[in-house]
Amino acid sequence: MKLLVFNIFLLTVAAVFGQTFYPKHRVIKKYHLMTLAPVNWFRALHHCRFLGMNLASITSLEENNQIIQQIKIEGHERKHFWLSGTKLGFNDGYHWMGNGKTLTFTNWGGLQPDNLPNEDCLQIWNVGDGPIDDSMWNDRNCSHDLYFICEEEKIEYEYCSS
Ligand SMILES: [Ca+2]
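A: This is the predicted complex of the input protein with calcium ion.
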């Protein structure tokens, strides 16, 4: 609401002084490591939405590295985390439930996804699980209790005038 009022104010100023303002924006993802209690994948998805966020989706190497770095900085290297990927209900592989997209970037660990029975949800492994699987992805039974990562999208505006 404040942003809307601010935009109207800028348009009014622009109209009065004959200037045009060009709003630039970029979307910033902020991650929240949810480490209070491990829950199954469905509850993780639900809890992030309850908080007005989404269970995290990783769409690039940069985002993957950002999350790994945050896990290390916050001291949660020995924990596993749910991400929003699942193949439940799909016959064409994994999809991100957090953003509704198919996976473009992937970071599966060695021999993963191994599609063991009922391993339909996507987790990020421990940071420090070894040179092959360190911080990589694994398919896991969705009913297993893990910590999880919510993502919050923030829009940053920058106004330039002509
Ligand atoms: Ca697996």
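DSSP finds three helices and seven strands in the chain. The longest helix spans residues 2-17.
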